[in-house]
Amino acid sequence: MAKEIILGIDLGTTNSVVAIIENQKPVVLENPNGKRTTPSVVAFKNNEEIVGDAAKRQLETNPEAIASIKRLMGTDKTVRANERDYKPEEISAKILAYLKEYAEKKIGHKVTKAVITVPAYFDNAQREATKNAGKIAGLQVERIINEPTAAALAFGLDKTEKEMKVLVYDLGGGTFDVSVLELSGGTFEVLSTSGDNHLGGDDWDNEIVNWLVKKSKKYMILIQKVIKWRLQDLKKRLKKPKLIFQIKVFLQFLYHF
């Protein structure tokens, strides 16, 4: 009888990860492309559902490619694709189902249970939506864990006997959150959490792009002014040789006349 395995899933805004415990250590499972992270992107094309790296490649060309769905979790908003409206948890479920599928191939048998991480500041509606996404994907969600707490567990902080307070940062592609944990006797308590749903790596990228666009516009205006000035200067410089040429032609005409 196969040993029961519970998947550990980081359902991220930009990328997602699935891991299992082997020899009491977390092991990240690679996706079919040999990568440890899978883009949290779902695309629809010709009634076909595409998830992960292949879907990400369609973000710029396919209007029905959906990314950053995590930011809508727990809301009443929907996304339109494949001629229907999808709830955020339905899109997230397709990402979870994909992770589950390739995890099962790696493990060699079916897996039905999972623990899913969420940002520390997620409210009850967002946590319930995440749990529902797992259910739609065919997973029994054993627990929803805060991402900073999961990070502390991954680093084995729960195994230390020292008493200490630890500040855990989680800066992802779409979210940023932080938790203060108090460790004591091999257990820890979350003292405080905070975060921002729109302060991730993607937001930094967007700000840099916007900054470059503004700068390039200023430079383009400057370049246009320089080009205009140089053209005027060039015209002035051309007038002299043009006049000399005209005089030479006129003198040759007089000579032949």
Structural class: alpha+beta
What's the total count of β strands? 14
Sheet with the most strands? 6 strands, mixed
In helices, the fraction of residues equals: 25-40%
Q: What is the domain total for the residues? A: 2
- Radius of gyration (CA) equals 30 Å
Instruction: Report the top-level CATH class of the largest domain.
Output: Alpha Beta
| Overall 3D form | globular
CATH fold title of the largest domain: Nucleotidyltransferase, domain 5
Low-confidence stretches: none
Mean pLDDT: 84
The proportion of strand residues reads 25-35%
What is the secondary structure topology, with strand pairs?
Blueprint: E1 6-11, E2 15-22, E3 25-28, E4 38-39, E5 41-45, E6 48-51, H1 53-56, E7 65-67, E8 79-81, E9 84-86, H2 88-107, E10 113-118, H3 124-136, E11 140-146, H4 147-154, E12 164-171, E13 176-184, E14 187-196, H5 201-256
Helix pairs in contact: 2-3
Key terms:
257 residues; 6-stranded mixed β-sheet; Nucleotidyltransferase, domain 5; 39% helix; globular; 3-stranded antiparallel β-sheet
Characterization of the model:
The protein has 257 residues and is α+β, with helices and mostly antiparallel strands. The chain has 2 domains: 6-159, ATPase, nucleotide binding domain (Nucleotidyltransferase, domain 5), CATH 3.30.420.40; 204-255. The protein is 39% helix and 30% strand. It has helices spanning 53-56, 88-107, 124-136, 147-154, 201-256; strands at 6-11, 15-22, 25-28, 38-39, 41-45, 48-51, 65-67, 79-81, 84-86, 113-118, 140-146, 164-171, 176-184, 187-196. The strands form 4 sheets. Strands 1, 2, 3, 4, 10 and 11 form a 6-stranded mixed β-sheet that branches. Strands 6-5-7 form a 3-stranded antiparallel β-sheet. The chain has a 3-stranded antiparallel β-sheet with strand order 12-13-14, covered by helices on one side. A hairpin with a 2-residue loop joins strand 13 (176-184) and strand 14. Helix 2 (88-107) crosses helix 3 (124-136). The model has no long low-confidence stretch (mean pLDDT 84). Belongs to the heat shock protein 70 family. It holds the Pfam family HSP70. InterPro entries: ATPase_NBD, Heat_shock_70_CS, Hsp_70_fam. Keywords: ATP-binding, Chaperone, Nucleotide-binding, Phosphoprotein, Stress response. GO terms for molecular function: ATP binding; ATP-dependent protein folding chaperone.
